[in-house]
Protein backbone atom coordinates (compact mmCIF):
# COMPACT_ATOMS: atom_id res chain seq x y z
CA UNK A 1 0.00 0.00 0.00
CA UNK A 2 1.28 3.43 -0.98
CA UNK A 3 1.11 6.16 1.66
CA UNK A 4 -1.72 8.62 1.00
CA UNK A 5 -1.74 12.26 2.05
CA UNK A 6 -4.28 15.04 2.28
CA UNK A 7 -2.51 17.88 0.52
CA UNK A 8 -5.33 20.41 0.32
CA UNK A 9 -8.62 21.30 1.98
CA UNK A 10 -11.24 23.94 1.22
CA UNK A 11 -14.55 24.92 2.76
CA UNK A 12 -17.08 27.73 2.57
CA UNK A 13 -18.83 28.96 5.72
CA UNK A 14 -21.88 26.81 6.55
CA UNK A 15 -25.16 28.68 6.90
CA UNK A 16 -27.88 30.17 4.74
CA UNK A 17 -26.71 30.58 1.14
CA UNK A 18 -30.14 31.23 -0.30
CA UNK A 19 -28.82 32.92 -3.43
CA UNK A 20 -26.25 30.23 -4.28
CA UNK A 21 -26.61 26.92 -6.11
CA UNK A 22 -25.14 23.59 -5.04
CA UNK A 23 -22.72 23.72 -8.00
CA UNK A 24 -21.66 27.27 -7.17
CA UNK A 25 -20.87 26.43 -3.54
CA UNK A 26 -19.15 23.15 -4.44
CA UNK A 27 -16.97 24.81 -7.10
CA UNK A 28 -15.72 27.40 -4.60
CA UNK A 29 -14.78 24.69 -2.07
CA UNK A 30 -13.06 22.67 -4.82
CA UNK A 31 -11.11 25.71 -6.01
CA UNK A 32 -9.97 26.49 -2.44
CA UNK A 33 -8.81 22.88 -1.98
CA UNK A 34 -6.86 22.85 -5.27
CA UNK A 35 -5.17 26.15 -4.42
CA UNK A 36 -4.39 24.92 -0.91
CA UNK A 37 -2.83 21.75 -2.37
CA UNK A 38 -0.88 23.77 -4.94
CA UNK A 39 -1.84 21.28 -7.63
CA UNK A 40 -2.87 21.94 -11.23
CA UNK A 41 -6.37 20.67 -12.12
CA UNK A 42 -4.96 18.48 -14.92
CA UNK A 43 -2.90 16.50 -12.37
CA UNK A 44 -6.09 15.28 -10.68
CA UNK A 45 -6.87 11.79 -12.03
CA UNK A 46 -10.15 10.95 -10.31
CA UNK A 47 -13.02 13.04 -8.98
CA UNK A 48 -15.78 12.36 -6.44
CA UNK A 49 -18.83 14.45 -5.66
CA UNK A 50 -20.82 13.80 -2.49
CA UNK A 51 -24.39 14.99 -2.14
CA UNK A 52 -27.27 13.37 -0.30
CA UNK A 53 -30.34 15.36 -1.20
CA UNK A 54 -30.10 17.19 -4.53
CA UNK A 55 -31.80 14.41 -6.49
CA UNK A 56 -34.76 14.53 -4.12
CA UNK A 57 -34.90 18.29 -3.53
CA UNK A 58 -33.95 19.70 -6.94
CA UNK A 59 -34.23 16.73 -9.30
CA UNK A 60 -30.55 17.25 -10.09
CA UNK A 61 -28.26 14.29 -10.82
CA UNK A 62 -24.64 13.53 -11.82
CA UNK A 63 -23.62 16.94 -10.55
CA UNK A 64 -19.97 16.02 -9.96
CA UNK A 65 -19.20 16.55 -13.63
CA UNK A 66 -20.87 19.99 -13.48
CA UNK A 67 -18.90 20.96 -10.38
CA UNK A 68 -15.49 19.73 -11.49
CA UNK A 69 -15.77 21.23 -14.97
CA UNK A 70 -16.02 24.61 -13.23
CA UNK A 71 -12.55 24.11 -11.74
CA UNK A 72 -10.81 22.79 -14.84
CA UNK A 73 -11.17 19.08 -14.08
CA UNK A 74 -12.59 17.08 -16.98
CA UNK A 75 -12.04 13.93 -19.05
CA UNK A 76 -11.22 11.85 -15.96
CA UNK A 77 -13.47 9.35 -14.13
CA UNK A 78 -15.95 11.20 -11.92
CA UNK A 79 -18.18 9.43 -9.38
CA UNK A 80 -21.29 10.83 -7.73
CA UNK A 81 -21.67 9.46 -4.20
CA UNK A 82 -24.90 9.43 -2.15
CA UNK A 83 -24.56 7.87 1.30
CA UNK A 84 -26.66 10.04 3.65
CA UNK A 85 -24.50 11.82 6.25
CA UNK A 86 -21.38 9.84 5.29
CA UNK A 87 -21.56 10.77 1.60
CA UNK A 88 -18.36 12.83 1.89
CA UNK A 89 -16.35 10.32 3.93
CA UNK A 90 -17.52 7.36 1.81
CA UNK A 91 -16.23 9.29 -1.23
CA UNK A 92 -12.99 10.02 0.66
CA UNK A 93 -12.69 6.26 1.34
CA UNK A 94 -12.91 5.52 -2.40
CA UNK A 95 -10.35 8.20 -3.29
CA UNK A 96 -8.01 6.82 -0.64
CA UNK A 97 -8.42 3.27 -1.97
CA UNK A 98 -7.56 4.38 -5.51
CA UNK A 99 -4.32 6.09 -4.44
CA UNK A 100 -3.30 3.49 -1.81
CA UNK A 101 -3.77 0.79 -4.46
CA UNK A 102 -1.39 2.62 -6.84
CA UNK A 103 -4.04 3.21 -9.48
CA UNK A 104 -3.71 6.99 -9.44
CA UNK A 105 -1.62 9.69 -7.76
CA UNK A 106 -4.17 12.42 -7.08
CA UNK A 107 -7.91 12.67 -6.47
CA UNK A 108 -10.35 15.35 -5.39
CA UNK A 109 -13.40 14.81 -3.18
CA UNK A 110 -16.02 17.56 -3.13
CA UNK A 111 -19.19 17.57 -1.04
CA UNK A 112 -22.06 20.05 -1.04
CA UNK A 113 -25.66 20.36 0.04
CA UNK A 114 -28.42 22.94 0.06
CA UNK A 115 -31.10 22.36 2.70
CA UNK A 116 -32.56 25.83 3.24
CA UNK A 117 -35.36 25.27 0.77
CA UNK A 118 -39.10 25.84 1.31
CA UNK A 119 -40.98 22.79 2.58
CA UNK A 120 -37.84 20.99 3.76
CA UNK A 121 -39.16 18.48 6.33
CA UNK A 122 -37.22 16.19 8.64
CA UNK A 123 -34.48 13.94 7.33
CA UNK A 124 -35.45 10.28 7.10
CA UNK A 125 -33.80 7.12 5.86
CA UNK A 126 -35.64 6.72 2.55
CA UNK A 127 -39.33 7.13 1.89
CA UNK A 128 -39.92 3.54 0.71
CA UNK A 129 -38.49 2.02 3.89
CA UNK A 130 -41.18 0.58 6.21
CA UNK A 131 -39.68 2.31 9.28
CA UNK A 132 -39.99 5.69 7.52
CA UNK A 133 -43.61 4.91 6.63
CA UNK A 134 -44.22 4.07 10.30
CA UNK A 135 -42.97 7.48 11.44
CA UNK A 136 -39.22 7.02 11.96
CA UNK A 137 -37.67 10.47 11.45
CA UNK A 138 -33.98 11.02 12.22
CA UNK A 139 -34.48 12.78 15.59
CA UNK A 140 -36.78 9.97 16.79
CA UNK A 141 -34.13 7.36 16.09
CA UNK A 142 -31.66 9.24 18.31
CA UNK A 143 -34.28 10.02 20.98
CA UNK A 144 -35.01 6.29 21.32
CA UNK A 145 -31.29 5.70 21.90
CA UNK A 146 -31.19 8.53 24.44
CA UNK A 147 -34.12 7.07 26.37
CA UNK A 148 -32.59 3.61 26.33
CA UNK A 149 -29.19 4.96 27.45
CA UNK A 150 -30.83 6.89 30.30
CA UNK A 151 -32.62 3.71 31.42
CA UNK A 152 -29.58 1.46 31.13
CA UNK A 153 -26.89 3.75 32.52
CA UNK A 154 -28.56 6.67 34.31
CA UNK A 155 -27.44 9.21 31.71
CA UNK A 156 -29.20 12.54 32.39
CA UNK A 157 -30.65 15.31 30.20
CA UNK A 158 -28.16 17.69 31.88
CA UNK A 159 -25.22 15.54 30.72
CA UNK A 160 -26.60 15.55 27.18
CA UNK A 161 -27.05 19.34 27.35
CA UNK A 162 -23.35 19.67 28.23
CA UNK A 163 -22.49 18.35 24.74
CA UNK A 164 -24.47 21.18 23.11
CA UNK A 165 -22.98 23.80 25.46
CA UNK A 166 -19.41 22.59 24.86
CA UNK A 167 -19.70 22.44 21.08
CA UNK A 168 -21.26 25.89 20.92
CA UNK A 169 -18.47 27.28 23.10
CA UNK A 170 -15.96 25.73 20.68
CA UNK A 171 -17.79 27.26 17.69
CA UNK A 172 -17.21 30.74 19.09
CA UNK A 173 -13.69 30.45 17.63
CA UNK A 174 -14.73 29.03 14.24
CA UNK A 175 -15.79 31.62 11.63
CA UNK A 176 -16.94 28.75 9.35
CA UNK A 177 -19.62 27.63 11.84
CA UNK A 178 -23.22 28.79 11.43
CA UNK A 179 -24.09 29.29 15.14
CA UNK A 180 -21.39 30.81 17.34
CA UNK A 181 -23.15 32.42 20.32
CA UNK A 182 -22.63 30.62 23.63
CA UNK A 183 -25.57 28.79 25.23
CA UNK A 184 -26.17 27.47 28.76
CA UNK A 185 -27.37 24.11 30.07
CA UNK A 186 -30.63 25.80 31.18
CA UNK A 187 -31.20 27.24 27.70
CA UNK A 188 -30.62 23.82 26.13
CA UNK A 189 -33.02 22.07 28.52
CA UNK A 190 -35.69 24.77 28.21
CA UNK A 191 -35.63 24.96 24.40
CA UNK A 192 -38.75 23.60 22.65
CA UNK A 193 -39.05 19.82 22.82
CA UNK A 194 -38.54 18.21 19.41
CA UNK A 195 -38.63 14.49 20.22
CA UNK A 196 -38.54 13.44 23.91
CA UNK A 197 -35.97 14.00 25.47
CA UNK A 198 -34.18 16.00 22.75
CA UNK A 199 -34.86 19.74 22.70
CA UNK A 200 -34.19 21.93 19.68
CA UNK A 201 -30.71 22.89 20.91
CA UNK A 202 -29.80 19.20 21.11
CA UNK A 203 -30.54 18.60 17.42
CA UNK A 204 -28.17 19.77 14.71
CA UNK A 205 -29.64 22.54 12.56
CA UNK A 206 -29.75 22.31 8.78
CA UNK A 207 -27.31 24.30 6.62
CA UNK A 208 -26.19 25.06 3.11
CA UNK A 209 -22.49 24.45 2.58
CA UNK A 210 -19.61 22.83 0.73
CA UNK A 211 -16.21 21.37 1.54
CA UNK A 212 -13.46 19.69 -0.49
CA UNK A 213 -10.32 17.62 0.02
CA UNK A 214 -7.40 16.84 -2.34
CA UNK A 215 -5.61 13.51 -1.75
CA UNK A 216 -2.20 12.67 -3.22
CA UNK A 217 0.50 10.02 -3.15
CA UNK A 218 3.75 10.87 -1.38
CA UNK A 219 5.53 11.70 -4.63
CA UNK A 220 2.96 14.39 -5.49
CA UNK A 221 2.39 15.73 -1.96
CA UNK A 222 5.83 17.30 -1.72
CA UNK A 223 5.07 19.96 0.89
CA UNK A 224 6.08 18.03 3.98
CA UNK A 225 5.20 20.89 6.33
CA UNK A 226 1.55 20.99 5.35
CA UNK A 227 0.66 17.53 4.06
CA UNK A 228 -1.22 15.28 6.46
CA UNK A 229 -0.93 11.51 6.29
CA UNK A 230 -3.96 9.22 6.14
CA UNK A 231 -3.28 6.47 8.73
CA UNK A 232 -6.67 4.79 8.34
CA UNK A 233 -9.79 5.16 6.23
CA UNK A 234 -12.43 2.68 7.32
CA UNK A 235 -16.03 2.37 6.24
CA UNK A 236 -18.59 -0.16 7.49
CA UNK A 237 -22.31 -0.76 7.13
CA UNK A 238 -24.76 -2.22 9.64
CA UNK A 239 -25.45 -5.84 10.54
CA UNK A 240 -29.29 -5.48 10.66
CA UNK A 241 -29.70 -8.46 13.00
CA UNK A 242 -32.79 -8.62 15.20
CA UNK A 243 -32.93 -7.80 18.06
CA UNK A 244 -30.62 -4.78 18.14
CA UNK A 245 -29.20 -3.17 21.29
CA UNK A 246 -30.79 0.29 21.03
CA UNK A 247 -28.39 1.90 23.54
CA UNK A 248 -25.41 1.53 21.14
CA UNK A 249 -24.59 0.82 17.52
CA UNK A 250 -22.53 -2.35 17.18
CA UNK A 251 -21.36 -0.95 13.84
CA UNK A 252 -19.96 2.13 15.58
CA UNK A 253 -17.75 -0.03 17.85
CA UNK A 254 -16.71 -2.32 14.98
CA UNK A 255 -15.65 0.49 12.65
CA UNK A 256 -13.80 2.46 15.37
CA UNK A 257 -11.90 -0.68 16.42
CA UNK A 258 -10.93 -1.45 12.81
CA UNK A 259 -9.66 2.11 12.33
CA UNK A 260 -7.48 1.86 15.44
CA UNK A 261 -6.04 -1.43 14.17
CA UNK A 262 -5.38 -0.02 10.71
CA UNK A 263 -3.69 3.08 12.14
CA UNK A 264 -1.81 1.08 14.79
CA UNK A 265 -3.00 3.36 17.59
CA UNK A 266 -5.45 3.33 20.48
CA UNK A 267 -7.85 5.94 21.83
CA UNK A 268 -5.17 7.25 24.21
CA UNK A 269 -3.03 8.37 21.25
CA UNK A 270 -5.61 10.82 19.87
CA UNK A 271 -5.04 14.57 20.26
CA UNK A 272 -8.23 15.81 18.61
CA UNK A 273 -11.51 14.27 17.39
CA UNK A 274 -14.39 15.40 15.18
CA UNK A 275 -17.36 13.10 15.62
CA UNK A 276 -20.90 12.89 14.31
CA UNK A 277 -22.81 14.93 16.92
CA UNK A 278 -26.02 15.08 14.87
CA UNK A 279 -27.76 14.98 18.26
CA UNK A 280 -26.22 15.38 21.72
CA UNK A 281 -26.83 11.72 22.62
CA UNK A 282 -24.95 10.64 19.49
CA UNK A 283 -21.73 12.28 20.65
CA UNK A 284 -22.07 10.51 24.02
CA UNK A 285 -22.54 7.12 22.32
CA UNK A 286 -19.55 7.82 20.06
CA UNK A 287 -17.28 8.52 23.09
CA UNK A 288 -18.08 4.98 24.18
CA UNK A 289 -17.64 3.40 20.74
CA UNK A 290 -14.33 5.26 20.31
CA UNK A 291 -13.15 3.86 23.65
CA UNK A 292 -12.71 7.28 25.27
CA UNK A 293 -14.57 5.83 28.26
CA UNK A 294 -16.25 2.53 29.22
CA UNK A 295 -19.75 1.84 27.88
CA UNK A 296 -22.31 3.76 29.91
CA UNK A 297 -19.86 6.44 31.06
CA UNK A 298 -20.31 8.77 28.09
CA UNK A 299 -22.70 11.09 29.91
CA UNK A 300 -20.19 11.62 32.69
CA UNK A 301 -17.41 12.27 30.16
CA UNK A 302 -19.54 14.93 28.44
CA UNK A 303 -19.73 16.93 31.63
CA UNK A 304 -16.28 16.52 33.21
CA UNK A 305 -14.13 18.62 30.89
CA UNK A 306 -12.12 15.79 29.29
CA UNK A 307 -13.55 16.45 25.84
CA UNK A 308 -13.46 20.28 26.04
CA UNK A 309 -10.82 22.48 24.43
CA UNK A 310 -7.89 22.25 26.86
CA UNK A 311 -9.03 18.83 28.11
CA UNK A 312 -7.30 15.48 27.57
CA UNK A 313 -8.94 14.81 24.20
CA UNK A 314 -11.01 17.69 22.80
CA UNK A 315 -13.99 16.57 20.71
CA UNK A 316 -15.60 18.76 18.04
CA UNK A 317 -13.39 21.83 18.48
CA UNK A 318 -14.95 23.12 15.23
CA UNK A 319 -18.32 23.29 17.00
CA UNK A 320 -19.48 20.05 15.41
CA UNK A 321 -22.68 19.50 13.48
CA UNK A 322 -24.57 21.10 16.38
CA UNK A 323 -22.95 24.48 15.62
CA UNK A 324 -21.91 24.24 11.96
CA UNK A 325 -25.28 22.92 10.89
CA UNK A 326 -25.53 19.76 8.82
CA UNK A 327 -25.41 19.79 5.02
CA UNK A 328 -25.03 15.97 4.73
CA UNK A 329 -22.94 15.92 1.53
CA UNK A 330 -20.42 18.36 2.99
CA UNK A 331 -20.37 17.43 6.70
CA UNK A 332 -17.82 14.61 6.70
CA UNK A 333 -15.42 16.68 4.56
CA UNK A 334 -15.84 19.64 6.95
CA UNK A 335 -14.74 17.29 9.72
CA UNK A 336 -11.63 16.31 7.72
CA UNK A 337 -11.04 20.02 6.97
CA UNK A 338 -10.98 20.71 10.71
CA UNK A 339 -8.66 17.82 11.60
CA UNK A 340 -6.23 18.73 8.79
CA UNK A 341 -6.25 22.39 9.92
CA UNK A 342 -5.53 21.29 13.49
CA UNK A 343 -2.71 18.92 12.50
CA UNK A 344 -1.13 21.71 10.44
CA UNK A 345 -1.27 23.89 13.59
CA UNK A 346 -3.25 26.46 11.57
CA UNK A 347 -6.48 26.59 13.64
CA UNK A 348 -5.73 29.94 15.31
CA UNK A 349 -7.65 30.57 18.53
CA UNK A 350 -9.18 27.07 18.49
CA UNK A 351 -5.85 25.29 17.93
CA UNK A 352 -5.36 22.20 20.10
CA UNK A 353 -1.79 22.57 21.36
CA UNK A 354 0.64 20.33 19.51
CA UNK A 355 -2.04 18.18 17.87
CA UNK A 356 -0.33 15.40 15.88
CA UNK A 357 -2.95 12.63 15.57
CA UNK A 358 -6.61 13.33 14.82
CA UNK A 359 -9.71 11.33 13.97
CA UNK A 360 -12.82 12.17 11.94
CA UNK A 361 -15.87 10.01 12.67
CA UNK A 362 -19.14 10.09 10.76
CA UNK A 363 -22.34 8.05 10.70
CA UNK A 364 -25.35 8.06 8.42
CA UNK A 365 -28.82 6.62 7.99
CA UNK A 366 -30.97 4.13 9.91
CA UNK A 367 -31.95 0.61 9.03
CA UNK A 368 -33.54 -2.05 11.26
CA UNK A 369 -32.34 -0.41 14.48
CA UNK A 370 -28.76 -0.12 13.24
CA UNK A 371 -26.93 2.53 11.24
CA UNK A 372 -26.64 2.38 7.46
CA UNK A 373 -23.03 3.61 7.45
CA UNK A 374 -20.15 4.55 9.71
CA UNK A 375 -16.75 5.92 8.69
CA UNK A 376 -13.60 6.62 10.68
CA UNK A 377 -10.59 8.40 9.21
CA UNK A 378 -7.34 8.74 11.17
CA UNK A 379 -4.92 11.47 10.13
CA UNK A 380 -1.46 12.35 11.43
CA UNK A 381 1.30 14.88 10.97
CA UNK A 382 3.99 12.90 12.80
CA UNK A 383 7.05 12.26 10.63
CA UNK B 1 -62.00 5.18 13.35
CA UNK B 2 -64.64 5.74 10.68
CA UNK B 3 -65.32 2.20 9.45
CA UNK B 4 -66.12 3.36 5.91
CA UNK B 5 -62.78 5.15 5.65
CA UNK B 6 -61.04 2.09 7.07
CA UNK B 7 -62.60 -0.16 4.45
CA UNK B 8 -61.45 2.13 1.67
CA UNK B 9 -57.95 2.88 2.95
CA UNK B 10 -55.09 0.75 1.67
CA UNK B 11 -52.41 -0.70 3.98
CA UNK B 12 -49.28 1.47 4.26
CA UNK B 13 -47.30 -1.44 2.77
CA UNK B 14 -48.44 -4.79 1.39
CA UNK B 15 -48.12 -7.94 3.50
CA UNK B 16 -47.10 -6.44 6.85
CA UNK B 17 -50.22 -7.25 8.88
CA UNK B 18 -53.29 -9.49 8.84
CA UNK B 19 -56.74 -8.27 9.82
CA UNK B 20 -58.86 -10.47 12.11
CA UNK B 21 -61.38 -12.62 10.25
CA UNK B 22 -64.08 -11.87 12.85
CA UNK B 23 -64.64 -9.28 15.59
CA UNK B 24 -63.08 -11.34 18.38
CA UNK B 25 -59.61 -11.69 16.86
CA UNK B 26 -56.63 -9.37 16.89
CA UNK B 27 -54.67 -8.18 13.90
CA UNK B 28 -51.18 -9.67 13.71
CA UNK B 29 -47.92 -8.47 12.21
CA UNK B 30 -46.88 -10.49 9.21
CA UNK B 31 -43.20 -11.25 8.84
CA UNK B 32 -41.05 -13.95 7.34
CA UNK B 33 -39.63 -17.32 8.37
CA UNK B 34 -36.73 -19.33 6.95
CA UNK B 35 -37.34 -22.97 7.87
CA UNK B 36 -33.80 -23.99 6.91
CA UNK B 37 -32.18 -21.48 9.31
CA UNK B 38 -35.10 -21.33 11.80
CA UNK B 39 -34.98 -17.52 11.64
CA UNK B 40 -37.82 -15.01 11.81
CA UNK B 41 -37.85 -11.58 10.23
CA UNK B 42 -39.88 -8.38 10.14
CA UNK B 43 -40.47 -7.12 7.57
CA UNK B 44 -40.11 -10.22 5.39
CA UNK B 45 -36.90 -10.09 3.31
CA UNK B 46 -36.83 -11.33 -0.28
CA UNK B 47 -34.19 -13.98 0.51
CA UNK B 48 -32.91 -15.35 3.80
CA UNK B 49 -29.73 -13.29 4.43
CA UNK B 50 -28.03 -16.39 5.85
CA UNK B 51 -28.77 -19.13 3.30
CA UNK B 52 -30.31 -17.12 0.41
CA UNK B 53 -33.21 -19.57 0.49
CA UNK B 54 -36.88 -18.65 0.22
CA UNK B 55 -38.56 -16.89 3.16
CA UNK B 56 -42.15 -17.87 3.80
CA UNK B 57 -44.76 -15.43 5.03
CA UNK B 58 -45.62 -16.01 8.69
CA UNK B 59 -47.37 -14.05 11.48
CA UNK B 60 -44.94 -12.85 14.15
CA UNK B 61 -47.50 -12.03 16.81
CA UNK B 62 -49.96 -9.47 18.08
CA UNK B 63 -48.56 -8.50 21.45
CA UNK B 64 -45.44 -7.62 23.35
CA UNK B 65 -43.86 -5.11 25.69
CA UNK B 66 -42.52 -1.61 25.14
CA UNK B 67 -38.71 -1.80 25.10
CA UNK B 68 -38.32 1.96 24.58
CA UNK B 69 -40.45 4.77 23.13
CA UNK B 70 -40.42 8.46 22.32
CA UNK B 71 -42.94 11.15 21.44
CA UNK B 72 -42.43 13.21 18.27
CA UNK B 73 -43.72 16.70 19.08
CA UNK B 74 -42.84 18.70 15.96
CA UNK B 75 -44.75 18.87 12.68
CA UNK B 76 -45.15 15.22 11.71
CA UNK B 77 -44.46 13.62 8.32
CA UNK B 78 -47.03 11.68 6.25
CA UNK B 79 -50.07 13.29 7.91
CA UNK B 80 -49.43 11.50 11.22
CA UNK B 81 -51.05 13.04 14.33
CA UNK B 82 -49.22 15.72 16.32
CA UNK B 83 -47.85 14.56 18.65
CA UNK B 84 -47.32 10.90 17.81
CA UNK B 85 -45.36 8.15 19.53
CA UNK B 86 -43.02 5.48 18.19
CA UNK B 87 -40.97 2.80 19.88
CA UNK B 88 -39.41 -0.63 19.83
CA UNK B 89 -41.67 -3.48 20.95
CA UNK B 90 -40.31 -6.81 22.17
CA UNK B 91 -42.73 -9.27 20.59
CA UNK B 92 -44.01 -11.99 22.91
CA UNK B 93 -44.31 -14.88 20.46
CA UNK B 94 -41.34 -14.37 18.16
CA UNK B 95 -38.77 -12.54 20.30
CA UNK B 96 -38.26 -9.98 17.56
CA UNK B 97 -37.71 -6.31 18.50
CA UNK B 98 -39.97 -4.32 16.19
CA UNK B 99 -40.04 -0.59 15.43
CA UNK B 100 -43.65 0.61 15.26
CA UNK B 101 -46.10 3.41 15.92
CA UNK B 102 -47.78 3.58 19.33
CA UNK B 103 -51.35 4.66 20.04
CA UNK B 104 -51.43 8.43 19.34
CA UNK B 105 -54.37 8.86 21.74
CA UNK B 106 -52.29 7.50 24.63
CA UNK B 107 -48.93 9.26 24.16
CA UNK B 108 -48.96 10.53 27.75
CA UNK B 109 -49.77 7.13 29.25
CA UNK B 110 -46.97 5.05 27.76
CA UNK B 111 -44.36 3.31 29.92
CA UNK B 112 -41.32 1.15 29.27
CA UNK B 113 -42.16 -2.48 30.05
CA UNK B 114 -45.86 -1.93 29.47
CA UNK B 115 -47.81 -4.72 27.76
CA UNK B 116 -49.16 -3.67 24.37
CA UNK B 117 -51.37 -5.21 21.70
CA UNK B 118 -51.44 -4.59 17.97
CA UNK B 119 -54.18 -2.48 16.43
CA UNK B 120 -54.66 -1.33 12.85
CA UNK B 121 -56.35 1.90 11.87
CA UNK B 122 -56.37 4.83 9.50
CA UNK B 123 -53.37 6.85 10.59
CA UNK B 124 -51.89 9.50 8.33
CA UNK B 125 -51.60 9.32 4.56
CA UNK B 126 -49.24 8.14 1.83
CA UNK B 127 -47.53 11.48 1.27
CA UNK B 128 -50.08 12.48 -1.36
CA UNK B 129 -53.09 12.78 0.95
CA UNK B 130 -54.54 9.28 0.41
CA UNK B 131 -55.43 7.78 3.83
CA UNK B 132 -53.44 4.73 4.84
CA UNK B 133 -53.99 1.87 7.29
CA UNK B 134 -51.07 1.67 9.67
CA UNK B 135 -50.33 -0.84 12.44
CA UNK B 136 -49.78 0.58 15.93
CA UNK B 137 -49.45 -0.82 19.43
CA UNK B 138 -51.82 0.22 22.18
CA UNK B 139 -51.49 -0.40 25.95
CA UNK B 140 -53.41 -3.42 27.20
CA UNK B 141 -56.02 -2.35 29.76
CA UNK B 142 -55.93 -4.95 32.49
CA UNK B 143 -59.39 -5.88 33.71
CA UNK B 144 -59.72 -7.11 37.30
CA UNK B 145 -55.98 -6.73 37.83
CA UNK B 146 -54.07 -4.83 40.47
CA UNK B 147 -54.82 -1.53 38.75
CA UNK B 148 -58.49 -1.92 39.66
CA UNK B 149 -57.78 -2.29 43.37
CA UNK B 150 -58.07 1.15 44.87
Features:
heterodimer; A: alpha/beta; Peroxisomal Thiolase, Chain A, domain 1; 9-stranded mixed β-sheet; two-stranded antiparallel ribbon; 11 strands; globular; B: 150 residues; 5-stranded mixed beta barrel; 4-stranded antiparallel β-sheet; 10 strands; 43% strand; disordered C terminus
Provide structural commentary.
The complex is a heterodimer of chains A (383) and B (150). By secondary structure, chain A is an alpha/beta fold. Chain A is 35% helix and 20% strand. In chain A, the strands form two sheets. A nine-stranded mixed sheet of chain A has the order 3-2-4-7-1-8-11-10-9, with helices on both faces. The two termini of chain A are 18 Å apart. With 150 residues, chain B is mostly beta strands. In chain B, the strands form two sheets. Chain B has a five-stranded mixed β-barrel. In chain B, strands 2, 3, 4 and 5 form a four-stranded antiparallel sheet that branches. The longest helix of chain B is centred in the first third of the chain and has 6 residues, at 3-8. The radius of gyration of chain B is 16 Å and the shape is globular. Chains A and B meet through helix 5, helix 6 and strand 5 of A and strand 6, strand 7, strand 8 and strand 10 of B.
Amino acid sequence: MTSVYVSGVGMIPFGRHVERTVVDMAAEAACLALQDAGIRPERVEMGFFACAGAARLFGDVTMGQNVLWQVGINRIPVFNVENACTSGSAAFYLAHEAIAGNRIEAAIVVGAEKLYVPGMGLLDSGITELDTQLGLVAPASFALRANRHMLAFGTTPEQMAHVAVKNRAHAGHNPLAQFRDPITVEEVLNAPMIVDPLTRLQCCPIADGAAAVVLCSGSLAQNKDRRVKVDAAVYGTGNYENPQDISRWETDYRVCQKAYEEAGIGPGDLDVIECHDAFTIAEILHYEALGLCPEGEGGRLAADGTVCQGGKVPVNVSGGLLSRGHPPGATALAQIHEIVTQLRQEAGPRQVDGARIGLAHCMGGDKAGDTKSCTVIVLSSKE
Amino acid sequence: MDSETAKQAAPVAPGIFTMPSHDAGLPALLGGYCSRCDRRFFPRPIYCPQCLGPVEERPIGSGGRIHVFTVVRIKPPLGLPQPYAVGYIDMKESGLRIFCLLDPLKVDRLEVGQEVALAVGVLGHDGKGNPRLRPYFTPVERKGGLEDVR
